[in-house]
Amino acid sequence: MNLSRRQFLYATGGAAALAASPGSLSAFVGGAACPFRLSVINDEISQDFEHSCQVAAEEFKLHWIELRGMWNKNIVALTPKEIEDSRRILQKYKLRVTDIASPLFKVDWPGAPLSKAAEHRDQFHAATDFKQQEEVLNSCINLAKAFNTNRIRCFDFWRLEDQKPYRAAMDQKLREAAETCQKHGMILLLENEMSCNTATGPEAARTLSAITNSNFMLNWDPGNAGAAGEAKPFPDGYNLLPKNRIGHCHAKNVERKPDGKFSWEPVGVGLVDWTGQLRALAADGYNKAVSLETHWRGAGTPEASTRISMQQLKAALAKAGYAC
């Protein structure tokens, strides 16, 4: 594949960061033990699940992986045979699962005006409506048990221009889902998502304050917060969050444009200071997953782009002082 000049700079910039900063191999050897479960979302590499696992384990040297979709199916649509096949592949590559990255509640809220933010398409091979969400939740619980994890990712419905008339009911729906998860020993992780009703640090702090179930936690994604328009997801948005309620973290980066639009970027480029964010997470006692959700496609393919972003995430970790 021929890289454009910009793609080449991304790639060589990541390599330079590894060579010239604490992100070098010597820093990895001498750094503090990794405080996080470093991970990657499998389908950010490939829809071929075995290939994704091979890259994660053998090239990225990971012990953890996050599951969202495989073989052109969302994870909640897998057959029993496909679940067994994927379990065998995970065992082969000695990978453990951080969480089930489900599409739970990424649907319209019933009775509300249709959201302008709704992605009315088969996003990540998921296409369900509100009436199917109880079935989706039950499937996620069964999948979490099958993959030996206790964490399930969710959202809080397509973003409304005015969510106030519906917010209390949405909160109650999330409480009920958390209660269902609690009965099975599961943690429900709400991702702050720019196209859903909890998008930014302040909004995440509000939702966590309203829903106090101990097993209802945040999947903190500063890149998403930046895409939603938050000027400084770290440190400003992060500082608003109750640190003991962060249960998962997605790593990616974003740039805001003068017209208000945004573009995804590799981890080392953009408005999120990942070295600072990683240091703060560790200092605040966070020790769960930091999972690469690349989204950026500047290297031409998901796999090539993920390689560059993983290299830059490891460089940020090394600069923060951790050998991951």
TrEMBL record:
InterPro entries: IolE/XylAMocC-like, TAT_signal, Xyl_isomerase-like_sf, Xyl_isomerase-like_TIM-brl
Name this polypeptide is given: Sugar phosphate isomerase/epimerase
Listed GO MF terms: isomerase activity
Pfam families, per database record: AP_endonuc_2 (PF01261)
PROSITE patterns in the record: PROKAR_LIPOPROTEIN, TAT
Keyword list, A-Z: Isomerase, Signal
Keyword Magnesium on entry: no
Lineage: Bacteria, Pseudomonadati, Acidobacteriota, Terriglobia, Terriglobales
Signal peptide from the UniProt entry: 1-26
Ranges where the Xylose isomerase-like TIM barrel domain occurs: 56-314
UniProt keyword Glycoprotein present: no
